[in-house]
Write a structure and sequence with these properties.
With about 425 residues, the chain is an alpha/beta fold. About 40% of the residues lie in helices and about 10% in strands. The radius of gyration is 22 Å and the shape is globular.
Length: about 425
């Protein structure tokens, strides 16, 4: 899932910069500076360096529409360098459910860098916003067919995505190894989407226990009025309460019980974690219920711990049962770990939005399937959601290329067949 409020180029600046460093490493062009114009897709023309920004615009086709209703765009290298036969598809992160469908704003800059490395680039808006994982998987798969019809069959197809796009990437690589030769999934909820939903829900339940009445409306049924006024309500009502020194111990208990990540060395990360997690409860809850056909959060059997009085907490915290229809629908979002194509995953250890435990759960699933050599997990010891440094993403992409070029032998990847 997973970028608050909207797909934000600012939250991907390190990722884009990392791809830029890849190009600079190969001496293809100077490191670009960011500009608003650079993020905008351009008509398909031969790339030319802007002498002021040093940004090389991508050579992009006009935006098209997929059969699902999703928007898509293809960007090809120019004559120099020629297309290397490799296609990179970008699966974007979470977008506010009420936003209009649009090509990811950051895709123009990413495409510019990849095109100058000789890679073709393509991306899709998905056919819906909000919870869009299953639609995203279908749309990135369809995008390969559209690319083939337009430009010819690629020799290698990489799928990369952050946050919600990380889950799209993982599921697509698992399910369609004949389409995707490998994937890079960054900071995605790949261990359990049900667990991710419960994580968001638990945070709101425990917050309401420690700060009763501070947020109006039910935690599992958000009113339109609250969504419309959330920014004002949060800044004028919630922020003063969580920053009040008299509530410092209460805030500490909230983070302890929910295990929500923050950096003890940076006090600003506490308020960032709280605001982000409450945002998802306010803006993602109703959309998830509509997409899943019911209410998916369940804490009926949850035993909360980490407060100064766990017995009182468990006796008084609000309890809700999930609808069977929603739990059944979540099956379509579950990874299985049965990798054939290589997958590289990257995750910050103090991710407040998508907890790092997703990586441990997914790794155990891969190993249980006997596919351990087809998966590489690259932990990054840092606070933040998708907050990677340049060299970290550079290394992850380089590792993916290496694994695709030299995958482990089948008997290594599937040891159970040798027994």
């Amino acid at each position: 899932m997973l970028m608050p409020a909207h797909r934000s180029p600012a939250r991907l600046v390190r990722f884009v910069s990392a791809l830029a460093l890849l190009a600079a490493t190969f001496g293809l062009f100077p490191l670009p500076t960011r500009s608003a114009e650079a993020a905008k897709p351009t008509p398909k023309v031969s790339p030319a360096v802007n002498p002021e920004s040093q940004v090389v615009p991508a050579a992009c086709d006009p935006i098209g529409t997929q059969a699902s209703g999703a928007l898509y765009q293809i960007c090809m290298p120019g004559i120099i360098p020629p297309w290397n036969g490799k296609l990179v598809i970008y699966a974007h992160g979470y977008v506010t459910p009420t936003a209009s469908l649009a090509i990811p704003a950051e895709s123009g800059e990413i495409a510019s860098v990849l095109n100058l490395l000789g890679y073709a680039f393509a991306t899709t808006s998905y056919s819906t916003n909000g919870l869009a994982v299953t639609q995203g998987v279908a749309d990135v798969r369809d995008l390969v067919n559209l690319f083939t019809a337009s430009e010819g069959a690629p020799g290698t197809v990489y799928l990369i995505g952050p946050s919600e796009g990380g889950l799209v990437t993982t599921l697509a690589v698992e399910r369609y190894p004949e389409v995707f030769d490998g994937g890079l999934a960054m900071c995605g909820p790949i261990g359990s989407l049900r667990g991710q939903i419960d994580y968001f829900g638990d945070f709101r339940m425990v917050f309401d226990y420690f700060f009763p009445g501070l947020i109006p409306s039910s935690p599992i049924s958000i009113t339109q009025d609250l969504m419309d006024t959330w920014d004002t309500h949060y800044s004028t009502v919630v922020v003063p309460a969580i920053l009040d020194p008299a509530n410092a111990i209460t805030v500490t208990q909230l983070l302890s019980v929910t295990q929500a990540a923050y950096d003890p060395a940076d006090s600003t990360t506490v308020s960032n974690t709280i605001s982000t997690l409450l945002w998802y409860n306010i803006f993602a809850t109703n959309d998830a219920q509509a997409k899943l056909g019911g209410q998916p959060f369940d804490n009926t059997a949850r035993v909360y711990s980490g407060s100064n009085d766990d017995a009182q907490l468990n006796a008084q915290v609000q309890r809700f049962a999930a609808d069977a229809t929603a739990l059944s629908a979540l099956g379509a979002y579950q990874t299985n770990g049965a990798l054939i194509s290589p997958l590289v995953t990257q995750h910050t250890t103090l991710d407040p939005v998508v907890p790092y435990w997703h990586e441990d759960v997914y790794r155990a699933r891969v190993v249980a399937q006997g596919r351990g050599p087809r998966h590489d997990n690259l932990p990054v010891v840092r606070y933040g959601h998708c907050g990677f440094e340049i060299t970290e993403v550079q290394g992850a992409f380089a590792l993916l290329e290496s694994r695709v070029a030299n995958p482990p032998p089948l008997w290594v990847a599937l040891p159970i067949l040798m027994r």
